[in-house]
Amino acid sequence: MNRIVLGVDIGGSHISSALIDLTNKVEIENSWSRAKINSKGPANEIIADWANTMEESMRVCSVRPSKISIAMPGPMDYGKGICKIKDQDKYNSFYNLNIKEMLSDCLNIETSKINFFNDAACFLKGEVYSGSLSGFDKAIGITLGTGLGTSCFSNGNAVDANLWKMPFLNGIAEDYISTSWFIKRYFELNGIIVKDVKDLIDNHSGCALFTQVFKEFSENLANFLHKFIKKEMPFAAVIGGNIANAEAYFLKDTREHLAHCMGYSFPIRISTLGERAMLIGAGSS
């Protein structure tokens, strides 16, 4: 039986893909491929760019993958492969189109071998499958970046928890746990506009207000995790996304705040697979 699959991660401005050996739970050497995507372009051009990246990965192996598993943000009818994204400044040209059929035509692969999955769920599935949460059978995942991604894993299945819009403080969770919060809060404190968290660290880490911003973020994240944990009762949590790269500035405080809320230390791990978690999670689904 062919145990080689193509895992794909489609983001707002990129696509990455790699062949995954499910028998050994590893990425096949030299199969990693990544490309920037103009997500505001016409659908046929985007599909062609996606297909080129996938073909580049598949060329390194003489055996055609048994399936193509794609991690993609919603909203989407994942079973049918119909995109429902609109008014998000990305992939608007795909609205109500069947991406599964379009890729099938472009790659000359049966539609039955092309499957779509929620990207947040794939992140967590990958970390449980062969990453930082390997061995845990009930867990939650959070991706910290432009937005807030949340997912749950139980009984071998990962699903989108969709908690970005959960009521939190004076708004919703994503208002306080995302790149936009850092930009807004730092501007409120000293009138300086930063591009993102990396810019904040690279150019303002010596400022006293820098410490205050990360202290507030740590408390926000811990309080959100506390609510998430009470809702799902997992055994561990994993954090990924671009903001996770700044763990040195918030993770210790987050763990301490959470321990204070819960009365005991709860396992919080940083993703070990990084971007590849999506590919492996999709491939293993």
Percent helix: 25-40%
CA-based shape: globular
* Helix-strand sequence: EEEEHEEEHEHEEEEEHHHHEHEH
How confident is the prediction overall: mean pLDDT? 94
Structural class: alpha/beta
- The number of E-state strands comes to 15
Q: How many domain units?
A: 2
Q: Name the beta content range.
A: 15-25%
CATH class (first level) name of the largest domain: Alpha Beta
Number of helices: 9
Any idea what the CATH architecture of the largest domain is? 2-Layer Sandwich
CATH topology of the largest domain: the name is Nucleotidyltransferase, domain 5
What's the N-to-C terminus distance?
A: 17 Å
Indicate the radius of gyration in whole angstroms.
Answer: 19 Å
Largest sheet: 6 strands, mixed
Superfamily (CATH H level) name of the largest domain: ATPase, nucleotide binding domain
Poorly predicted sequence stretches spanning 5 or more consecutive residues: none
In short:
The protein has 285 residues and is α/β, with parallel strands linked by helices. It is built from nine helices and 15 strands. The chain has helices at 43-58, 99-107, 119-130, 173-176, 179-190, 197-204, 208-232, 251-262, 276-283; strands spanning 4-10, 14-21, 26-27, 33-36, 68-72, 76-77, 82-83, 114-118, 138-144, 148-154, 157-160, 167-168, 171-172, 236-240, 268-270.
Would you mind describing this structure in some detail?
The mean pLDDT is 94. It is built from nine helices and 15 strands. The chain has helices at 43-58, 99-107, 119-130, 173-176, 179-190, 197-204, 208-232, 251-262, 276-283; strands at 4-10, 14-21, 26-27, 33-36, 68-72, 76-77, 82-83, 114-118, 138-144, 148-154, 157-160, 167-168, 171-172, 236-240, 268-270. Helix content is 37%, strand content 23%. It is of the alpha/beta class and 285 residues long. Helix 1 (43-58) crosses helix 2 (99-107) and helix 7 (208-232) crosses helix 8 (251-262). The two termini are 17 Å apart. The chain has two domains: 4-109, Nucleotidyltransferase, domain 5 (2-Layer Sandwich); 123-276, ATPase, nucleotide binding domain (Nucleotidyltransferase, domain 5). Strands 1, 2, 3, 4, 5 and 8 form a six-stranded mixed beta sheet that branches. A five-stranded mixed beta sheet has the order 11-10-9-14-15, with helices on both faces.
